[in-house]
Write a structure and sequence with these properties.
Bound molecules: zinc ion
Number of domains: 2
CATH class of the largest domain: Alpha Beta
CATH superfamily of the largest domain: lpxc deacetylase, domain 2
Number of helices: 7
CATH architecture of the largest domain: 2-Layer Sandwich
Mean pLDDT: 93
Order of helices and strands: EEEEEEEEHEHEEEEEEHEHEHEHEH
Helix content: 10-25%
Distance between the termini: 13 Å
Structural class: alpha+beta
Radius of gyration: 18 Å
Shape: globular
Number of strands: 19
């Protein structure tokens, strides 16, 4: 299997979640081995996607360099990685990725529209060789060896509209589009009110998040899936694992995980070469066959 980029450039304008102002975002094809690169056109600064460029994970995953930041990258990255794209430039004229409807389905539609181009060099992946875990209180995130790409997530919120939810996702792009990409981000009304009071979430609305009060979901249209909350957690985790720099082959398991824990997990895996290996997806090895099949359907 070869590396991938997009067939041609494409541009959209959308609102950023925090500032609430329109952001122009253009996706451009990039050559072999260039990776995912963000570019702030208003600052003329490039920021490569790698763990050391992650500067904040409290509310969203934020990357930065030379005091220039780009926020809320995880939903776009989730779609990029679900489509097996290795090389891409993301050009922005502001500091946030458009939030769209709070899920990644708009990014999937954009990628479907432009199409995926195969490149010259073989695609590489990072295969988990040793179990690595990050645990804080009763929350954990962990990576285990597997020949598949699997994400298992559970949450337990003491809220009547959420409660206990669990979802297991065995990667394929169809499954991703159907069962993961449409799951929206969510927040609690008291948090939203607080964020607004400190100047954040200015673009947040019922159009780009599920919002809950103490008892129920406020959005009049309700949920897209009964367990939309945990599915969104998987969407986020796929985006966050893209910081490893390659498609992750292995089993991701989490209970009550977060961007913060995911970031610590990527750093911990990369700490020692005993934990992982870089595999070539052109080679017909047993460990990569399932992955080749899973990606084969992306056009
Ligand atoms: Zn999210």
């Amino acid at each position: 299997m070869k590396q991938r980029t997009i067939k041609k450039e494409v541009e959209i304008v959308g609102i950023g979640l925090h500032k609430g102002v329109p952001v122009k975002m253009r996706l451009e094809p990039l050559g072999d081995d260039m990776g995912i690169v963000f570019y702030r056109s208003d600052e003329a600064v490039s920021i490569e996607l790698k763990p050391e460029n992650v500067i904040d994970t409290k509310m969203a995953t934020v990357i930065g360099k030379d005091n220039v930041v780009i926020s809320t990258i995880e939903h776009l990255l989730s779609a990029i990685y679900a489509y097996g794209i290795d090389n891409l430039r993301v050009v922005l004229d502001n500091d946030e990725i458009p939030i769209l409807d709070g899920s990644s389905s708009g990014f999937c539609m954009l990628l479907d529209e432009v199409g995926i181009a195969e490149q010259e060099k073989s695609k590489k992946a990072i295969r988990v060789k040793k179990e690595v875990e990050v645990k804080i209180d009763n929350k954990f995130v962990k990576l285990k060896p597997s020949n598949h790409i699997i994400y298992n997530f559970s949450i337990n919120f003491e809220h009547p509209a959420i409660g206990e939810q669990q979802f297991n996702f065995d990667y394929s792009v169809e499954e991703y589009k159907e069962n993961i990409s449409r799951a929206r981000t969510f927040g609690f009304l008291h948090e939203v009110q607080y964020l607004r009071s400190i100047g954040l979430a200015q673009g947040g609305s019922l159009d780009n998040a599920i919002v809950l009060d103490d008892q129920k979901i406020i959005n009049p249209e309700g949920l897209r899936y009964d367990d939309e909350f945990v599915r969104h957690k998987i969407l986020d985790a796929i985006g966050d694992m893209s910081l490893l720099g390659y498609t992750m082959i292995g089993e991701y398991n989490a209970h009550a995980g977060s961007h913060h824990l995911n970031h610590l997990l990527t750093k911990k895996l990369l700490e020692s070469e005993e934990n992982y290996e870089i595999v070539d997806l052109e080679e017909e090895k047993d460990q990569v066959q399932a992955i080749q099949r899973a990606y084969a359907t992306v056009k």
